[in-house]
Amino acid sequence: MVALCHPSLHLFFYPSSNFRSSFYSPYKTPISLPKLCASLIAREEVPEAEEPPLPSSLRGVDRKPSSIPEGAVTPLSVDFNAWYLDVIAKAELADYGPVRGTMVIRPYGYAIWEAIQEYLNAKFKETGHSNMYFPQFIPYSFIEKEASHVEGFSPELAVVTIGGGKELEEKLVVRPTSETIVNHMFTQWIQSYRDLPIMINQWANVTRWEMRTKPFIRTLEFLWQEGHTAHATAEEAEKEALQMIDVYKKFAYEQAAIPVIAGRKSKAETFAGASCTYTIEAMMGDRKALQAGTSHNLGQNFSRAFETQFTDENGERQHVWQTSWAISTRFVGGIIMTHGDDTGLMLPPRLAPIQVVIVPIWKKGNERIGVLSTAASVEQILKSAEIKVKIDNSEQRTPGWKFNFWEMKGVPVRIEIGPRDVANGSVVVSRRDVPGKLGKDLGISMEPSVLIAHVKSTLEDVQASLLQRATLFRDRNIVDVSSYEELKEAISEGKWARGPWSASDVEEQKVKEETGATIRCFPFDQPEGSKVCFMTGNPAEEVAIFARSY
Amino acid sequence: MVALCHPSLHLFFYPSSNFRSSFYSPYKTPISLPKLCASLIAREEVPEAEEPPLPSSLRGVDRKPSSIPEGAVTPLSVDFNAWYLDVIAKAELADYGPVRGTMVIRPYGYAIWEAIQEYLNAKFKETGHSNMYFPQFIPYSFIEKEASHVEGFSPELAVVTIGGGKELEEKLVVRPTSETIVNHMFTQWIQSYRDLPIMINQWANVTRWEMRTKPFIRTLEFLWQEGHTAHATAEEAEKEALQMIDVYKKFAYEQAAIPVIAGRKSKAETFAGASCTYTIEAMMGDRKALQAGTSHNLGQNFSRAFETQFTDENGERQHVWQTSWAISTRFVGGIIMTHGDDTGLMLPPRLAPIQVVIVPIWKKGNERIGVLSTAASVEQILKSAEIKVKIDNSEQRTPGWKFNFWEMKGVPVRIEIGPRDVANGSVVVSRRDVPGKLGKDLGISMEPSVLIAHVKSTLEDVQASLLQRATLFRDRNIVDVSSYEELKEAISEGKWARGPWSASDVEEQKVKEETGATIRCFPFDQPEGSKVCFMTGNPAEEVAIFARSY
Q: Which residues form the Aminoacyl-transfer RNA synthetases class-II family profile domain (chains A, B) (predicted)?
């Protein structure tokens, strides 16, 4: 395995041109900067090597390429797509289902989704939403009721035509999203303003018959949550749509360590049936954009199509104002493609199913019992502090194999315990994000309070470091453009282009056809001062971000 | 609303004939018997009344029938099915979906399912299982691979024939259960004995095209968990299948307060594709049986059909031994039909989304602020003890309306706070399961430690009381039979019949045709001594339980 440096690490230390990097980082997670930067700079100074750093060379652990489990991944810089698929296979995140475009989410990949669910589910409840469940079969006629909705979704539908051995009178759509059936029910539940707001969410599977699929990113069936709300006023609905995109943004920054850019979609990119779509856009390791979560202000589009009305305080009948918002298993793909490296997956500690792996190391038979029992007591110490810890004491594999395997799985922290550690009452703590000696803390006492404090602070450091790296990478790869030529150049280099835009849908389409880039969003954070559209020379109110995307 | 006494309460105090009631209650949850029995007996002694008891008559709360929210439910004794559907509608548990036989699970009903999930999910992980997710679309050909599986499921399939606007080459089944696709994947993941056991679970929706549907009990689409395991030996698989039915049984007793009978299915009632099915059978309020959870020993049936093989320690190729096990949203229906009464739903505290509702009561405007602020501080006190509490301080409804509403919703404990309570620093605590004065504790101090202890102990009393009532009801309605005539009589009275059985499948079918009853199970708990089959007069090894069922 050839462990190349991250292809764009050298970009981290050049200052951004027009925008300070902090300008687009509204969530300033407290970061212990001196320590972090030291490790980053130190990493930067390591000369590029043909051989991977051997973090355990001190103790003679075999890390030769031949000991790598089931072969290495394709280097990220050589073929990003092949690297992505290799990581998914070798870290045992997912597998292909028997039907084209479907995916089996394996336990380790599903555990990341469970961590996402746990956080978001609590936030949804805190913000006043209740979970419920709508059937997945929707009468075909429902989809046709909202004009732009049917236009957007009809090419992607899976249709049930046979039930219980008989041809069905009305074909049933397997839900691609639930706005239509939700409105059908809301119409029955809502009579007066006293019934409002309704604020609900469901965790469910959805089906979209996609032609080009990719595990996690775009699959025929995927898992998601979809929130649906109904309000008495346009203002309330707008406030809700903005609140939920903010919940997503905080989640991305604080849990996934992904510095997304939040903003508004252009008309062309708005959800089929929405008045306005808000989005969080993430930059992947290949610098393509990933739409990682959306929140729609649906206006009265669905309530007019389904006659979802209420009697207001003055006794007048009005259509409700609605929102919907979703995050899906696609986000797991976003985590892989944001943080992974040539060694494999790299997980943010707050979402990692395993935060610490303990690898016991012994050579002579008489060392075995002491090492294993010490490892078990370290495991108990960390468990008592609610750290997610796993001990790998299988005897079929060498320590070197285990190091590689758990690095591939992206476990943020490894604890090594050998006979000398047992004698000294100390352990070695290694960070997944900093290879080699630099990422190792030797001689950490096993005294519970010391060990727990050290491990917790290391996990926080890794969490902050991942966000900082990703933020630096993002900001180095956004180019401010003031002409179409500059945009074309930035896009051709694989970067994102940001510039003032007030041109037409036709011109937006032209950019897409000529460069492959679309407007990802008009970011909420806008530079001050007057602006001139880079395409038309007319005044512009906002900058837009253009990029190629997944 | 006419609140009749539970139709079978009078049956509680007659001793069972051959079997002591404790014989079939292996989970002897500690119950504070003297107090409980006192309340039961006291309830028993209340003469049947045309009018409901007025638990709040002391304070002049209006409980006249006219104040009942959206009308009362059909009395349980008049029409059990209508009562069930009324409770589901009025307690806002579920609604009908637009497609025949589908159900929308509303927030309150879904919250019960979430409580079930929370408990079981933790137990599955404790017993070594990981969650994952398999696609719901299964190639039609998979279903046909296991002979008895296709026979059992093909009449119930929903089939997708169109995807992305085109007729599909191979039709896709919307999963009715996942054994086939699970085995397809296991075959790829399992090579050697080192890969075993595999122990996984998924929370998912499944589809069965049922002709006669009923909310929660039998719907076209339902939610469930399905566990799937693969083992190297027959013994391990058998142990696993038994372990999981025991997890379900403990859940039913300890969380849902449902005294299920666990046992083995007859051959005719075994899951399509299993070697052996274990079940927990619950007696509903109308004395029909509900199959509330099953665990299957699949033997090598699916591994032979899908060639799921491993190399054992001797280098020999063997087929794996498997299990699968499931509990579904049907269980919510079981809770409703076990504990509900003419006042509505009655929830076991451990699964209740709201354990305590606080109803503030005031008449004069100057009492309002004091009552509301006291209610809010009581709410905070209970929240601090992790009691699930809700305060109903809406001003659009009277206290009487609220009493009825939250009783309909089955909230186990109500706290009433009026101006006199504020002055005295005390509250009134009322139990949902004991109507009238007998269920009321007056003058409970608001001092946090006193109040918390009192509420917690009341919740535990309600939990234990529900299990005790249901157990007494069950045992009074199981008749030990020693002839077919006795069985016919018991079944015609709506009871369960239990008797020694060693007759043939043909004779089992005859019983079904002539009485409507099926063998629910051969219970694990068997009476001692030699037995004679009540049908044939031949020796019998076991007693079987016969009943009409859902």
A: 100-348
Residue type at position A230: A
Report the alpha-carbon distance of residue B265 to residue B536 in Å, rounded.
20
**Minimal Cα distance from A134: which residue of B?**
B104
Nearest Cα residue to A246 out of A127, A338, A118: A127
The reply to whether residue B161 touches residue A162, judged by beta carbons under 8 angstroms, is: yes
Q: What token pair was written down for B46?
A: 């209340």
Of A367, A348, A339, A415, nearest to A55 (Cα)? Answer: A415
Structure tokens at B5: 């006494």
Which letter does DSSP use for residue A135 in this model? Answer: -
CA distance A111 to B179: 22
Q: What is the pLDDT of residues B162-200, one digit of tens each?
A: 999 999 999 999 999 999 999 999 999 999 999 999 999
Contact B133 A107 (CB under 8 A): no
- Cβ distance B223 to A142 less than 8 Å, yes or no, reads no
CA distance A11 to chain B (A): 38
Triad B60, B62, B65: Cα angle to 5°: 145
Q: Which residues of chain A have pLDDT under 70?
A: 1-71
Q: pLDDT per residue over A475-500, tens digit each?
A: 999 999 999 999 999 999 999 999 99
State the residue for tokens 């995927």.
A222
Spell out which residues of chain A touch residue B105, defining contact as CB-CB under 8 Å.
Answer: 132-133
Q: How confident is the model at residue B71 (pLDDT cuts 50, 70, 90)?
A: low
Closest residue to A200, CB basis, from B107, B130, B162: B107
Q: Which residues in chain B have their CB less than 8 angstroms from residue A105's CB?
A: 132-133
Report the C-alpha gap between B240 and B297 in whole angstroms.
Answer: 8
Q: What is the pTM of this model?
A: 0.88
pLDDT higher than threshold 50 for residue B268: yes
B268 with B519: CB under 8 angstroms? yes
Is B346 in a helix, a strand, or coil? coil
